[in-house]
User: What shape does this take?
Amino acid sequence: MSSLARVREVYERVVDLEGPDRERVLREVCGADGALRSEVEALLRAGQDAQSFMENPPSAVSLEELAAIASTDSGTFRKGEKFGAFTLLEPLGQGGMGVVYMAEQDRPRRTVALKLIRSPFLSPQLLRRFEQEAQVLGLLRHPGIAQIYEAGSAPGPDGRVQPYYAMELVRGKPLIAFANERGLGVRDRLQLFSLICDAVQHAHQKGVIHRDLKPANILVEDAEATTGRSFAGTTSTTSGPQPKILDFGVARITGSDIAVTTAGTDVGQLVGTIPYMSPEQVRGDVHGIDTRSDVYALGVVLFELLTGRLPYDVKGKTIAAAAMTITNEEPTSPGRIIASLRGDIETIVLKALEKAPERRYQSAAELASDVRRHLADLPIIARPATTAYQFRKFARRNKALVGGIIAAFVLLTAGVVGTSIGLVRARSAQRLAEQRESEARIAARTAENSEQFLISMLSAANPAVSRNREMTVRELLDEAALKVDAQLAEEPAVAFRTRLALARTYLSIGAFDQAQAQIDAGDALAVRLYGDVSVEHSLVLSVLCEYYQSRSMITEALPVAQRSLDIRAALLPPDDILVARAEYALGRLQVSAGKYSEGLPRIRTALGIMEKHGGVDAITYASELASTLRRTRKAEDAKEADALLESTLQRARALGPKGGAVTSAVLLNVASLHERRGDPKKSKEMVLEAIQLREAFYPPNHPNILYARLALVRSLRANDEPAEARAQSDALLEPLRRVMGPDAAILSDVLRERAHACMESHDLDCALASIRQAVDMLHDKTPFVFQSTTLTILAEVHMARNEWNDALVACDRALDTARARKVPLSMMHVTAQYRAKCLLKLGRGEEALAAVDENLAGLPVVDETLAARMEVSAFKAEILDSLGRATEGQALLRSVIDQVHNAGDADWTAELLEQLAKSCDEAGDSAGAAQARERAHSLAKPAGEP
Amino acid sequence: MSDTTAQTEVTRVLHAIAKGDARAHNELLPLVYEELRKLAAARMAQEPAGHTLQPTALVHEAYLRLVKEEDAKWQGRGHFFAAAAEAMRRILIERARRRGRIKHGGGHGHVSVEDFEPGGSKGSPEELDLLALDESLEKLKKADPRLERVVTLRFFGGLSVEQTAEVLEVSERTVKRDWEFARAWLFREVSGTGENAGGGS
Assistant: This one.
């Protein structure tokens, strides 16, 4: 055989030659070496034929393929390669923990299943623990358990240490597939299942819990296969098929046994596992896991083995939703799927599936024994009804608790995941921007770890732990906030996102101090980890902005929003979602500050960017743009707004049920528009529809449902249904207190509405009680607007009750607050007017006069304040009258009448003319009075009438 | 969070390689895998399910994401591309293996193990047999390592003749000649007309 070098040499010499030349050179060079010559000639022919060979690049890979392959380290091994004391033969597959190879062990010489565990972060301590625990697992010897031979770690081809364990190689079929292929009947299936229970019981006796039992982890070997080979001395004496359980106890040492598992496991890989997890596992309640968790999983396996279905439908649900289903809902009865399962079998399955471990079979042996009793037609031990009844009673009693916790959970995770995904997108577009670590992985991991952290929070609300106490969202958050430091000390990036989520959620329930503390702590982390010109810092600034905004501190919010936008604009592509968000936030603030000309274009820009990215954000933005346009009071804007709202609502509705959240938000927006337009009926319809959507979309008592119900209270009032409004607010108060906590800001909103509703239905006692409760909730961090509104309503109620002193005190308190906050008096003119009225009623005319003068002085002379100025002036005329300065008063009133008349408000003009007439009467000027009444009369005729 | 970022990690490894630390080569490959994982995760957040990418484009994107342009000298880039091309080769081989396994019905019951779903795009009939190519490449590598590198860089890494020449520090002409020869040799191997040509020695 010629060496390649020699062949190549000849090839190169002749490849460019033609016909006789090539022939000549070949003869010269090769001489008698026929082999060399034919070799070269073959290659020359191949070169001719290979023109299109490897011309096209390899075919495209899908992202899923890439992720799946690159996520296992299998690519770094090649067939026949050595790994520790093993020779890798071929990959068998991959699972959540890593890749499995069929491998040949050197000593003892045997073929094994070798699992290489993917775990990017391994400390020597962890490795040691892993090896120690694996030794314990090695002690499990049972024909129904695939034996773990050894575990350890060895350097992989890349030089990095890779943990592994070697397990008995089982050549069987997965449980369900086996049963189906053999066409096993119910009895055979039960028989097979009882063998599985035996194996589990054996392990439990040795103190090992499986923690990840599922049909895919149970292989069934044929009788022949079992007897034909011998593994480590385990000889099978059974004659039928032998189930073998894989990975016994492995879940714990690799940490993949609770709902959101270790770093690096993605949510998708959990999907196959969650349906088999017990309630204590999905809650992440590590300490609650015991052998009875395996009994639960066995129950699910039996359910699936008999019915082909799972007891709960968790397909396509998020982890949070699946967790909620598993913890709260009753499983489907097997008998409803297959009627013949009714009776004993159903009772057995349901007992294994009890939510509370103490209600399940207490051991796998008990379960097996009941199955065998049934097979032997003996009465089973399990009794249905009563136990289930008791648990259901408990669950009902704690429904609000469960709802509240889930609500908090959804709020939190939504925030965390939202920002992370945004960030990933931003980064991939950024491409070359400075990166710390692997952003995508970090972001994904942070989201998961935050979720894991929160799930572990849920375990704190485990009914067993807090049986006598109902946790509110607030308490849950406080607990989470306390634990961030201790539990996430090693994961500052996760801590950062968790704090951000906490801050947002605190804001949503109006706990401003707590929100601020989280924002500060989060920002410190962001700046330390990423610097102060970073997307992360800008994320904090956004939350800070929300904080200021919810405290109505627009002036403070504006520069923060600007800074956030500047940072993102500098770091990210101009059409990035995060840039759009910042534009939107700044735009909205500017609009709130009355700067429409600056704010509107920003909202438009943000909407433009969002439209490119599609999705629900664009709909939200469009709806916001529409309501902003309504506020400019320009006719053309109003027109655009109406059209925009109409089309936005259509787009939202087209999303169907999955768009419930955004559709309901648009509906509420449209509803308030109708209300302002004086169509309260239409408004109410939309609010009702929004509530319906939210009730279908969110878990019971989710804050967003409660917010929509508050809108209903308002709408009912606008519809002149004060009794119904009051009833609705009554029904709202109780769940709000339980879910949001007794201090939640939204409570005072409801109380204010309730006070109004009571006043409108002439129940002044109820009005006073409500508004007093609202006042009691005020504290110095309460946003100013709410303070002043609440106190002003208190004054109103007192005035309605003729309690002028109390009313005066309320007004003074409201005005003092305004002064302390340096709020311009113009914003308080209604309260100031009330105050003047109180003073006048109390016979303190001079003070009342001073009060209105002060009020007038505070009102800038612009069109927008005309009505306010006229109202105050008319009242000033009344005061002047009472002070015996009627001439002055009447002169003032006349000028007011002219201005109101010019503004086109005929009704009001008539009212004022009547006031003038009365004043003239009192002054004995009957001619003046008659003249005023005459004018009022002529005004009362509609313009078109003759 | 650790202080060493992926970027500086790569830079460090590239420097070590430049200084002749052969072991550093082994460290580069996992970093590239890591990068491809991240890249896939990031793109999956943006793209619909089943979205496909050209492997060669992926290599370049991974490079752009990881290495700052001003950071790495061409020398370092070469090593990076070599590792990336190798990673891509392994990934494509693994995919071919998996598809093959699925086609032939699997047979091994080890299914603790979510069976891999092919991402929609089945190999086209005229698509070349990557597994056979891979085997032949290994053979070629034993006989002439440079030929194998040229093929891996060009075919799996998508590098141009010019880029390949710079990575391997040879002339473009050499790359062209190597490519032509290797292609002929591999074609003969893969199409089964050759008997163990040129192995050994």
